[in-house]
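@channel anyone free to eyeball this complex?
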Amino acid sequence: MLAVENLSVSLPMEGGRVPVLADVSFALARGESVGLVGESGSGKSMTALAIMGLLPPGAATSGRVLFDGRDLLAAAEPELCAIRGRRIGMVFQEPMTALNPLMSIGAQVTEPLRLHLRLGRAEAEARARRLLARVGLAQIDPHRHPHQLSGGQRQRVVIAIALACGPELLIADEPTTALDVTMQAQVLDLLGELAAEQGLALLLITHDLGVVSATAARVMVMYAGRVVEAGGTGAVFAAMAHPYTRALFAASPHEAGGRPAPIPGQVPDPQHRPPGCAFAPRCPRAQRDCVATVPVLSPLPFKGRGLGEGSACGASAASPAPSPPPSPASGRGSHVAACFHPHPAP
Ligand SMILES: Nc1ncnc2c1ncn2[C@@H]1O[C@H](COP(=O)(O)OP(=O)(O)OP(=O)(O)O)[C@@H](O)[C@H]1O
Ligand code: SF4
Ligand SMILES: [Mg+2]
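replying in thread with the prediction:
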């Protein structure tokens, strides 16, 4: 249903045009759930905005975003308007800014039903009430305004709006970040249930690996605008190959078990990305070849390459990749990583 192919995005910044996304590829079928994880600034929201055609002014793109065979990057605004909210629902990162503070929540859920589905007032209001009930807000007066709700309730309203027109794809950008642990679990369960009920594809964006392991069948790890590891959630968690994935895991309070270990340093600013592997300045496995070339995604395990002995994998600068750079889009579910010295499988 969705195939993102070699998506690259650059933005105009002081001093010229700067790439913020590079070669992002993945596919999502009906009923599938994929988690997109990475630290702040890794490019998760930018990926979502590119799919929705909502990039900042002046953004330049290359690659393709195929939705049902149609390239959304090439689509005109009226076509995108008809798809957004109707066929692709989006839960934006900040629920308070996603809601109109001056409109009642009932009116905000009703609006897309009238606009996209052309329902009459009574029918739209009845459906809005059913939607609010479905997200656990049956007891809430639809005449209330967003400031009269708790953070968790507001997030549920945002989900109800995103699901109002029965979209085929739901993009949820940090849907639980603003919520307490109990509410997080409830919202995640709700998203999982709705995805299963309605057969919708779910792209779940989060910085939290625990959220992904609980919700998504596949995971993509992003760093500095690139996907650095991807595969089935079970396979990736069982054998994290990319040092960044491991560092992210160790930094996650849910997953680390003991005390989370913060990753030293910071995600490089797009204007100051280091040459070669962008993770090199923070990577405990970095070697000299890591700064020479950008590693490409390659399938795991890298057989017969002396893994675990510090030798270069098949994608090293000295020995080119044995096969063309695969994308998660081409090998759905296959475990891939972009690293010259990945961790060996346990
Ligand atoms: N409007 C913009 N103009 C210039 N740069 C931007 C803009 N929006 C985002 N960026 C930059 O693009 C990069 C990717 O940002 P993005 O918002 O996708 O990160 P993210 O992974 O969603 O992070 P977070 O977890 O904080 O939401 C960052 O370096 C960010 O500073
Ligand atoms: S390519 Fe090198 S620096 Fe980058 S993650 Fe792999 S080992 Fe670390
Ligand atoms: Mg974001």
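from a first look: Confidence is low (pLDDT under 50) at residues 304-331.
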